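Record minuted for completeness.

…
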Amino acid sequence: MMRYAVAYTTTLIAFLAIDAVWLTTMSQRLYRRYVGDILVDVFNPVPAAAFYLIYVVGLIIFATSPAFSSGKWTTAALNGALYGFFTYATYDLTNQATIRGWPTIITVADICWGSLLSAVAATVGFLVTRYYLRGA
């Protein structure tokens, strides 16, 4: 159980830190530019927190846990990338199908970002957990 607590915490920290960099650098360049007219004026942290807390559970189940079984960081990276690809594609392609004028550039950027972010966060979580628990 300790392994999963450490993995969850480290993966969440990595995911939040990396995504914060993306959001602060790309929010004006990409999101405000292309979908600014549908963005809220005041950020609502509750659904954002729910997303991060739930999403990382999925990363642990589908990427980090299989990496613990295989003992390979590449399992965390590959499964994390696939999880990110499928989840971000679900969100963005649904938006593209249902929201008038949803830009393809946002869909492509989000899917690429979600894949990379999820791969890196799952890998960091796996490696830090493995290192931390070696001495335990």
Residues 2-134 form one domain. Residues 2-35 form the longest helix (34 residues).
